[in-house]
């Protein structure tokens, strides 16, 4: 073998040895690198910060508004309820009339019986309007009963079957509804110049005298009591007091 061939063979052998060594090293290192990459913890991506909701954003504003509320300057004084007479219409009806705790049939029966006995032209309305209460008070006054202006089964029985009169209770106001009605009459007569006394909700001598004067000026029989006719006249368009000579 010539020296040239010997060198070529040696080069081929060296190349083959390098190839075998490189192949062996690459196969041993690759699994290790892959395993390390698999075992390495994945970098945690930070979760996006949720946008604040409208409710949460409005909460501080609402709290600030509540903290700036104007304090009550009345010093804790009780608020007086608006009287029933202040809501009356010109026809003598109440905008928000009260109803007693009785059946509508009982109220209509009371209105029918009072109408038949001449206590006013009452309609069969299940709501107790001021004129119906005044008619009840007129019946109570005429029969010596305390003035309540309230409908009840006992009142209906008394109208239908009668009963003993008690003069001691005649004209005595004994319910908030009756007192409110008397106050309305007192204020109305005072505005017309009849001097019914203080608006205290009691049917006293001054108030009865002023009612009689008003009834005479209107051509009615002077009785000096609360009645449906009286309420109807007081709630009609205002007229000046008639002068008597």
Write the layout of secondary structure elements.
Blueprint: H1 3-39, H2 54-67, H3 104-116, H4 130-142, H5 153-161, H6 176-191, H7 205-217, H8 228-234
Helix pairs in contact: 3-5, 4-8
Q: Would you give an account of this structure?
A:
With 245 residues, the protein is an all-alpha fold. It has a domain at 84-234. It is 50% helix and 0% strand. It is built from eight helices and no strands. Helix 4 (130-142) packs across helix 8 (228-234). The termini are far apart. Mean pLDDT is 74; it is low at 31-43 and 52-97.
In short:
With 245 residues, the chain is mainly α. The protein has helices spanning 3-39, 54-67, 104-116, 130-142, 153-161, 176-191, 205-217, 228-234. The radius of gyration is 50 Å and the shape is rod-shaped.
